[in-house]
């Protein structure tokens, strides 16, 4: 017997302005991850700026304009778990970064963060059974829901319904209010890889085997790897990732993804959130082969380690001669976040035949035109260490692959200098010698 949940839906339906009245001065409010972040609700809350004081809003990759900050950053403070393009203009102007390891976010939300007064998530339309999908922003939605006193769903007909392995749906009977929106989803068209990115991708694909399971992080190089795999002879690739992007769709269209050899979630492409093109969103919509979990599953190093032949591919900003990796800041200027990079670096290494690659071009051109090496004697002052030297497995530039696990300080320096830009190698050798991590017999 099918129960009609439409009456309960209508009873809980409010306008965005009515829903925003649930927020009081001093409250903590959380918006769901990425494309699941609130838009209509935040715009309505911004219209109440003159009525409120000291409202704190937490988010993670806020994908929509920050209406409340634009209205009055003295009233609204945002804390972001990962700085996005929409967040960057507001850093230290009303928005602050919250450090975390991504797989711990649901635990921190339930255990350590300030209790939430209101949680708002943009979701897919209700199905005939009364359920909404967290859609493209499943990452930690259920944990925030569990922690909130008041829960509000922003129902968007544009949000895909994403099937799931766990904690991917919420029922109308479990929420307090719903509002309706018609917000276009942010689209990110995949960029064509550069010559350097393609060369780096080639070093990685040469080391891959049929049946391996792939995680791609954010950036040009991970996307280039997807393109390279699509054009390769590899087959039966598996997918287990935090971020689902167009590179996976490209691999699937090329017949490379089956997941038939995955030791967990066989035949399923597992992810926590998605961000990409309209084609990608249409592909995952109600697709039983693409399933969403919270990040305490997708990013848990213990789960990742159980998947044989796991390959983690991420990007970074700079690496020092000891193998420390910074992927989130330039000096003290926060530009992204730790995210799941460390989770996958550690999990992939512990997988049977697992490999973890962190990639970057060997140089960076500064605003004044100066060319700098991204392999540095020591980190730029103030730069945040995303992966400690004890965790780093392999570093890749357009000049090759440096394997660091099990290596001493002089061996690391030697390996890293060998993949640095040739114009900087002599200088790096002098710096390594000054730090007593270079042997005269290295050459």
Description:
With 443 residues, the protein is of the alpha/beta class. It folds into two domains: 6-181, 3-Layer(aba) Sandwich (Glutaconate Coenzyme A-transferase), CATH 3.40.1080; 195-442, Glutaconate Coenzyme A-transferase, CATH 3.40.1080.20. Helix content is 26%, strand content 22%. The protein has 15 helices and 26 strands. The strands form seven sheets. Strands 15-13-11-10-16-21-25-26 form an eight-stranded mixed β-sheet, with helices on both faces. It has a seven-stranded parallel β-sheet with strand order 4-3-2-1-5-7-9. Helix 5 (105-111) runs parallel beside helix 6, helix 7 (195-205) packs across helix 8 and helix 14 (409-418) runs antiparallel to helix 15 (422-434). The mean pLDDT is 95.
Itemize the secondary structure elements and their pairings.
Layout: H1 6-12, H2 16-20, E1 28-31, H3 40-46, E2 55-59, H4 67-71, E3 76-80, E4 95-97, H5 105-111, E5 116-123, E6 131-133, H6 141-147, E7 148-156, E8 169-171, E9 177-181, H7 195-205, E10 213-216, H8 220-230, E11 238-240, E12 243-244, H9 246-253, E13 269-271, E14 273-274, H10 278-284, E15 290-292, H11 295-298, H12 301-305, E16 310-315, E17 318-320, E18 325-326, E19 329-330, E20 333-334, H13 341-350, E21 355-359, E22 363-365, E23 371-373, E24 375-376, E25 394-397, E26 400-403, H14 409-418, H15 422-434
Parallel strand pairs: 1-2, 1-5, 2-3, 3-4, 5-7, 7-9, 10-11, 10-16, 11-13, 12-14, 13-15, 16-21, 17-24, 21-25
Antiparallel strand pairs: 6-8, 17-18, 19-20, 22-23, 25-26
Helix pairs in contact: 5-6, 7-8, 8-9, 14-15
């Amino acid at each position: 017997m099918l129960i009609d949940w439409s009456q309960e839906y209508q009873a809980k339906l409010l306008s965005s302005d009515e829903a925003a009245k649930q927020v009081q001065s001093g409250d903590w409010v959380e918006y769901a991850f990425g494309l699941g972040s609130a838009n209509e609700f935040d715009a309505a809350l911004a219209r109440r700026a003159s009525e409120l004081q000291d409202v704190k809003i937490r988010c993670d990759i806020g994908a929509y304009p920050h209406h409340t900050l634009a209205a009055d950053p003295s009233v609204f403070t945002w804390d972001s778990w990962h700085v996005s393009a929409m967040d960057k203009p507001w850093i230290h102007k009303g928005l602050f970064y919250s450090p975390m390891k991504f797989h711990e976010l649901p635990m921190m939300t339930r255990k350590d963060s300030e209790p939430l007064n209101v949680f708002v998530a943009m979701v897919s339309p209700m199905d005939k059974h009364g359920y909404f999908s967290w859609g493209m922003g499943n990452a930690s939605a259920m944990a925030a829901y569990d922690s909130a006193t008041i829960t509000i769903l922003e129902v968007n007909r544009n949000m895909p319904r994403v099937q799931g392995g766990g904690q991917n749906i919420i029922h109308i009977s479990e929420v307090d209010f719903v509002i309706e929106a018609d917000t276009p989803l942010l689209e990110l068209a995949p960029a064509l890889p550069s010559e350097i990115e393609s060369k780096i991708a080639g070093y990685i694909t040469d080391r891959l085997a049929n049946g391996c399971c792939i995680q791609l992080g954010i950036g040009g190089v991970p996307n280039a790897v997807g393109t390279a795999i699509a054009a390769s002879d590899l087959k039966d690739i598996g997918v287990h990732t935090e971020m689902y992007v167009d590179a996976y769709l490209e691999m699937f269209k090329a017949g490379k993804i089956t997941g038939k050899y995955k030791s967990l979630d066989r035949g399923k492409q597992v992810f926590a959130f998605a961000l990409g093109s309209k084609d990608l969103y249409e592909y995952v919509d109600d697709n039983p082969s693409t399933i969403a979990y919270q990040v305490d599953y997708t990013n848990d190093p213990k789960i990742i380690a159980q998947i044989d032949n796991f390959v983690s591919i991420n990007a970074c900003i700079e690496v020092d001669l000891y193998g420390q990796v910074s992927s989130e800041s330039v000096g003290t200027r926060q530009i992204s976040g730790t995210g799941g990079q460390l989770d996958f670096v550690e999990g992939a290494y512990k997988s049977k035949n697992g490999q973890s690659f962190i990639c970057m071009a060997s140089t960076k051109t500064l605003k004044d035109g100066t060319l700098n090496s991204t392999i540095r004697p020591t980190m730029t002052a103030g730069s945040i260490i995303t992966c400690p030297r004890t965790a780093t497995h392999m570093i890749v530039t357009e000049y090759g692959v440096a394997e660091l696990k099990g290596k001493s300080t002089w061996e690391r320096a030697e390996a890293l200098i060998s993949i640095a830009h040739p114009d900087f190698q002599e200088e790096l050798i002098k710096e390594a010698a000054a730090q007593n991590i270079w042997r005269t017999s290295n050459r």
